[in-house]
Design goal:
Low-confidence stretches: none
Radius of gyration: 18 Å
Shape: globular
Strand content: under 5%
Largest sheet: none
Order of helices and strands: HHHHHHHHHHHH
Number of strands: 0
Helix content: 55-70%
Structural class: mainly alpha
């Protein structure tokens, strides 16, 4: 049996004490979460907000599915990579159509069934799939992103750099709790923006400063 990595829970407790519940994901509907998860690929969240605002009151799966691709491109242009993302949005919306755009119907399925389905959708990688499953549908699947990789490297969490290895490590060392997974990911992102930056990290004022090994930092 593998020895438990207590640092994973300690990081969460420390960040949660510092920031509290961040109430992610900012969206009016589960479908808006899906759209945001696709649009946020390779762009800042502020650009996603501009693109979503362009939909006005017309952000629904039915509208996106039947909209001309050229019109969709114009709407999501602020998010960048708009030609690709229009195709991806159409594809993930078609997947949702297979469940009659009904969130409870999706939630009656298993995570083991839904995750491979989403990963087979054009433009949906692991981070996007897990974001959709966690934040839109409430499944306990931990989201790994660049901020998570960075904090693990600096803490000396040596379980491999691959997405699946880190995801499995977090899930093995945390309670299987949707609310915790939700807030933990948000906390890591917030800390990564405020303190654990890629360049010029603000270690001295970081809430994790006393715990972090600062590996890879001069």
């Amino acid at each position: 049996m593998k020895q438990q990595d207590k640092s994973i829970l300690t990081i969460y407790e420390t960040l949660n004490s510092h920031y509290g519940n961040l109430n992610w994901w900012p969206a009016k509907t589960p479908y808006e979460v899906m759209v945001g998860a696709v649009l946020t690929q390779n762009t800042a969240w502020g650009n996603v907000e501009k693109a979503i605002a362009n939909f006005g009151e017309n952000l629904s799966p039915e509208t996106v599915l039947h909209m001309e691709t050229e019109d969709l491109i114009d709407i999501i242009r602020p998010a960048g990579f708009f030609n690709q993302k229009a195709v991806y949005l159409k594809a993930v919306t078609a997947w949702f159509a297979g469940y009659s755009f009904d969130v409870p119907i999706v939630q009656r399925e298993t995570l083991e069934k839904l995750r491979p389905e989403l990963l087979s959708v054009k433009g949906i990688g692991k981070e996007t799939a897990d974001s959709i499953l966690l934040y839109a549908f409430g499944f306990p699947t931990f989201v790994i992103d660049a901020y998570t990789v960075r904090i693990c490297e600096r803490f000396g969490v040596n379980v491999g750099k691959g997405y699946d290895a880190l995801k499995a490590h977090f899930e093995a060392n945390l309670p299987q709790n949707v609310d915790m997974y939700n807030n933990y990911h948000a906390l890591i992102v917030m800390n990564g923006k405020d303190y654990c930056r890629k360049s010029k990290p603000r270690c001295g004022s970081c809430p994790l400063e006393e715990l972090c090994k600062k590996e890879g930092l001069a």
